[in-house]
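thought: fold this chain, then report.
action: predict
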Amino acid sequence: MYERHTQPLLPVRYFVRRLILHALLALAVTVVALGIGILGYSLTEGMPLLDALLNASMILGGMGPVDALRTDAGKLFASFYALFAGMVFLGIAGILVAPVAHRFLHWMHLEEADSEEIGG
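observation:
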């Protein structure tokens, strides 16, 4: 998926395409994570879908739940979902940062190789 260190820097139009693909992947992961939260809150707390979406979104966004949890099952689900949401947040950050970090490091490696050729 990424070019090797011996290959030239990816042209800008392909890099933008890579950024868009990574953003779409991050969006897909977010939708799946929200779906898990909606399903969990609906099943464990009996929340309507809109309320379940609100609570799942708030936990996934790091804000915390909106509604008070009444059942033990709901409290357990919210605990595990909060841990899951933290991992999802880190994963999405990695998905979004990876192409930019790779391009920067690849560019630095090419600059280093060019300076070695000029100096040596």
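thought: worth noting. The helical segments are 12-45, 49-60, 72-119.
final: tokens above.
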